[in-house]
């Protein structure tokens, strides 16, 4: 069979070089040029036989750079990144969800500057993996089928590059953005360090301000669109309730309190794993969270919580650049330890797990 019959889009070479330029016809913009830098050290890649196979690359584009300059933003970077991935066709697309996010952002300043700037997106019709299944004679070929998608954004920086008060401020801005979006029906459901970003903005007084961004909405959903009780998230940062056997079997609904708890696990992770914006080279018990399944991670995190709440100083230590974030994280974790089995109203979860435990200067 020819590549096209297997769902391959002829715009892309089967085996691209380290840098390749493609030109994509677009009804609104004419021809969109995309020069991908596949060899970049900033490339983010996820390998696997299953899943979305998400790759994020630096990308150059004359047409999209011109488009970006016409769209006002506090993020003044000229750099762009392209997210290439294979989401399930049956799910509402990330681009559609981001359209709703930006409608909310237009009305709320705590969301407006704290969500990613989408410059262009494209669903490549004809690339469905259902074609492969149909060619192989597999029944229900459409079930779970995936399709190629590209979204181009203004470049953001990982929140893990920040330390001290700047890190905590960017983290809190993402918390606030998430809370408002959830109340308006946007369920993020994948809070992790890689999905919290930032950029710098110079205000009218010439002062550099850090702006936290809640990124990556490809596992998100809308409140009015049923998604069942599927378990979504990045395992090391998921709420303990969602790592249970019942959750794996789809018996527990993903609630706001679960995302709120994920923000706390992110705070713990960064406080221990990062020093002055760089991943620490020291051995940490948290590394084991990356190598186990949901049940194993539940056991590891529960054990971690018991040790640190007993003030076992030899078990783990925060980095020097995240001492204050660690103290905030411990305060939050104590509440998680007592409330993990309770179903909480959204506003109660926000107040008791997060808002009441951060310093006053952060809430102002």
Defining key terms:
364 residues; alpha+beta; 32% helix
One letter per element, helices H and strands E, the order comes to EEEEHEHHEHEEHEEEEHHEEHHHH
Uncertain runs: none
* First and last CA, distance: 62 Å
What is the average of the pLDDT values?
88
SS field, number of helical segments: 11
Structural class: alpha+beta
What's the alpha carbon Rg, rounded to whole Å? 21 Å
Oligomer: single chain
Number of strands: 14
Strand content: 15-25%
Task: Characterize the overall form.
Answer: globular
- Proportion of residues in helical segments: 25-40%
Biggest sheet descriptor: 7 strands, antiparallel
Give your account of this protein's structure:
With 364 residues, the chain is an alpha+beta fold. It has eleven helices and 14 strands. Strands 1, 2, 3, 4, 5, 6 and 7 form a seven-stranded antiparallel β-sheet that branches. It has a three-stranded antiparallel β-sheet with strand order 8-10-11. A two-stranded antiparallel sheet has the order 9-12. A hairpin with a 3-residue loop joins strand 1 and strand 2 (30-37). Helix 5 (164-183) packs antiparallel against helix 7 (256-273) and helix 7 runs parallel beside helix 10 (346-353).
Brief digest:
The protein is α+β, with helices and mostly antiparallel strands. It has helices at residues 62-69, 94-105, 109-112, 130-135, 164-183, 245-248, 256-273, 294-309, 323-339, 346-353, 360-363, and strands at residues 19-26, 30-37, 44-45, 55-60, 80-85, 118-123, 149-154, 157-158, 186-187, 196-202, 208-214, 221-222, 274-275, 278-279.
Describe how the helices and strands are arranged.
Layout: E1 19-26, E2 30-37, E3 44-45, E4 55-60, H1 62-69, E5 80-85, H2 94-105, H3 109-112, E6 118-123, H4 130-135, E7 149-154, E8 157-158, H5 164-183, E9 186-187, E10 196-202, E11 208-214, E12 221-222, H6 245-248, H7 256-273, E13 274-275, E14 278-279, H8 294-309, H9 323-339, H10 346-353, H11 360-363
Antiparallel strand pairs: 1-2, 2-4, 3-4, 4-5, 5-7, 6-7, 8-10, 9-12, 10-11, 13-14
Helix pairs in contact: 5-7, 7-9, 7-10
